[in-house]
Design goal:
By secondary structure, the protein is of the alpha/beta class. It contains 19 helices and 15 strands. Bound molecules: 4-O-methyl-beta-D-glucopyranuronic acid. Keywords: Hydrolase, Signal.
Length: 660
């Protein structure tokens, strides 16, 4: 039993660190469990005038959308109980960070803001780097303990505090057993704890559940018995969880079963489930993460498979599309499906867990990566058709809008492994609520909430200088630079999927054994030879550029106008190709790798100077992790440069400009 202070130091309290609160009188026009939580939070965290009176009122207002809220000097107004809860968290955040709460109207950009947990029922977490699952421990341990309840409640509270309102409790590589009554009992227990924090529960389902769980002969979505099986199962779920959200499905992707196994389409499969869920207002999130060895360019497949089906899906189906066309690389151009599917709802899927961005060993603040994607212009409905506006209902009037983030939570005491990985959970919630926020603002909020200690007299003692100058500013700068640093030392200039095979940590551009499908190797993606390097996706190559709308398609197609950060994503170029800097491609590649290392060394220096401002535990932990990150960046650089040098046959330039 750890003290509150120790748990706080461990980062267990995330951005919700407890402090002393002032007394406050709350008048609340309702007593639902959600409102009760809202009142409890206000009482525990009020930092405004002691003895203030605050009114929490629920009722319609033209300015409000969904679970939005308004703050003013009298209190909080929202049209739903959930809105009040979000208003409370927002108000408390503003009090802690010093942001004005005088007159605020805040509406969520997306209706569903979901975490996807890739948690397996045996308790392991696919691509999880923060310990075992917070939800599952395996078949033999399904009983719900008091510890479980406390943990799920802390989780729900953290999610709600940043506006996350839905959670998919199991891996998209779904075990059919999740629909077994024994497991559903535990799902219900979780749902009951998440509900008072406004969080809806969803499940990932395996398409062949009718066969593998139900004992049927087929899982063909047009088969009557199959449809009946799903109906009965769905009814069973809603009896336990009346506000159940619906299903997330990975079908005909990476070996998962799906409708194509029976000669049916994605639409046939998704619609069957959608019809079954419809009476309960449930939805289907159908993933578009598909690729196969037959397609010569993996980046093209999702578009090719899904575009012909635009308009064929029921209105309670949303196609869930990863931000980029390949797979959660540290940098990808946005998926061309955004804005292109005009008659079908599409939702972005982002990855919070750092599969390709250094697991929980590396400091990489991901808000800039998601901001880059959400604010990218697709041009699909003219200039300003950003990915965000194409998916949030602004441009296309979808009945449901949603955004998902693959979670980075686990049983680690600090939830996410790396102390700074918590910032990515936070950032996802904030951006899902408001995609117009800047990464800078999110970093600012998170750093204040996570590290500022009101009990320390910063600036008034010799040890602690001014906190903003000594800690906030440099740490924020480090965070904002960190993702670009990862790009630089792992996959600069549009390189992609040159990571070590399987675990995706460390360099692996040499991965290309003949026994494996070509699209599972690295050499397929970089295409290096003595003539040059890069994947030709222009009109003279795979023509993936034409999946984008003009003028973007032509801009990407032309090596002179293609942004350099995507150069090798779209172009195969000679090693001596001249870049805008005047350097050759080879020299520029070397420069970027080296610059990445210099950036992480810079982070080490930055962090070392923060020692007076942080508790010892987090200080030492981050310091050690940054040390490892520098060494690993070095391995990345050496590995990649030595590998590519056998093709470029050029020396590593010695006159690398040293920015640090
Ligand atoms: O990023 C890849 C991962 C797989 C994952 C898959 C997917 C859940 O390497 O581990 O499987 O994507 O998104 O389905």
């Amino acid at each position: 039993c750890m003290t509150t202070a120790a748990r706080a130091e461990n980062g267990h309290q995330l951005w919700l660190r407890k402090g002393k609160a002032n007394p406050v009188t709350i008048v609340c026009q309702g007593s639902s469990p959600i409102l009760k939580n809202a009142v409890k939070e206000l009482e525990a965290g009020w930092l405004g005038e002691p003895g203030s009176k605050l009114i929490l009122s629920v009722g319609r207002d033209k300015r409000l959308k969904g679970d939005g809220f308004m703050l003013d000097s009298r209190g909080i107004h929202a049209s739903t109980d959930k809105g009040i809860l979000y208003g409370v968290y927002d108000l408390l955040r503003r009090q802690k960070t010093g942001e004005s709460a005088k007159s605020v109207v805040s509406n969520p950009a997306y209706e569903y803001r979901l975490l996807n947990h890739w948690d397996n029922l045996d308790g392991s977490v696919e691509r999880g780097y923060a310990g075992r699952s917070i939800f599952w421990r395996g078949d033999k341990d399904l009983a719900v303990t008091q510890n479980d309840r406390v943990l799920w409640q802390e989780y729900a509270r953290a999610c709600a505090s940043v506006g996350i309102n839905a959670s998919v409790l199991n891996n998209v590589n779904a075990s059919p057993r999740i629909l077994d009554p024994e497991y559903l009992k535990r799902v219900k227990a979780i749902a009951d704890i998440l509900r008072p924090y406004g969080i809806k529960t969803f499940l990932s389902v395996n398409f062949s559940s009718p066969v593998r769980l139900g004992g049927l002969k087929t899982s063909d979505p047009l088969d009557k018995d199959v449809i009946r099986w799903w109906k009965v199962k769905t009814e069973e779920i809603y009896k336990l969880i009346p506000d159940f959200g619906g299903f997330l499905v990975k079908a005909n992707s990476e070996g998962q079963p799906g409708p194509q196994d029976f000669g049916r389409t994605h639409a046939d499969g998704a619609n069957m489930m959608a019809d079954v869920l419809k009476p309960y207002r449930g939805i289907v999130m159908w993933r578009a993460f598909v690729y196969s060895s037959q397609e010569k360019d993996r980046a093209r497949q999702a578009y090719n498979e899904f575009m012909p089906l635009d308009g064929a899906f029921r209105d309670n189906v949303i196609i869930q599309v990863k931000n980029g066309p390949i797979d959660f690389q540290p940098r990808e151009p946005f998926s061309p499906l955004f804005g292109a599917m005009k008659k079908t709802a599409v939702m972005p899927e982002l990855q919070i867990t750092q599969e390709y961005l250094g697991h929980s060993y590396q400091l990489a603040f991901l808000a800039p990566m998601w901001e880059e994607c959400l604010k990218s212009d697709t041009y699909q409905e003219g200039k300003g058709s950003t990915v965000a506006r194409c998916t949030d209902g602004s441009i296309f009037k979808y009945p449901y809008t949603a955004i998902a983030g693959v979670a980075n939570t686990g049983l680690d005491l600090n939830w996410c492994g790396h102390p700074f990985a918590q910032a990515n959970w936070y950032a996802f919630g904030r951006q899902a609520w408001d995609h117009t926020l800047t990464s800078e603002q999110i970093a600012d909020e998170w750093t204040k909430l996570t590290f500022y200690n009101p009990d320390v007299a910063y600036g008034k003692s010799e040890k602690h200088g001014d906190w903003e100058r000594g800690f906030l500013k440099p740490v924020k700068e480090m965070m904002l630079e960190s993702r670009e640093a990862v790009v630089n030392y792992s996959m600069p200039l549009g390189f992609h999927h040159i990571f070590s095979a399987d675990d995706h940590y460390g360099p692996g551009p040499w991965f290309g054994p003949k026994s494996v499908r070509p699209d599972w190797t690295s050499v397929y993606y970089h295409q290096a030879d003595t003539n040059g390097v890069g994947f030709n996706r222009t009109r003279s190559g795979s023509n993936a550029v034409s999946q984008y709308h003009e003028p973007l398609a032509s801009q990407l197609n032309d090596v002179q106008t293609c942004p350099e950060k995507y150069l090798l994503w779209f172009h195969h170029l000679p090693w001596d190709f001249k870049l805008k800097s005047g350097k050759t491609l080879w020299d520029e590649i070397c420069f970027h790798y080296d610059h990445g290392i210099q950036q992480v060394r810079g982070f080490q220096k930055t962090w070392d100077l923060t020692e007076p401002y942080v508790d010892k535990q987090r200080f030492l932990q981050v310091q050690n992790l940054l040390m490892r990150q520098t060494l690993d960046a070095q391995v990345w650089k050496d590995g990649c440069i030595l590998y590519f040098q056998q093709f470029s046959r050029r020396p590593v330039p010695y006159d690398l400009e040293r920015p640090v």
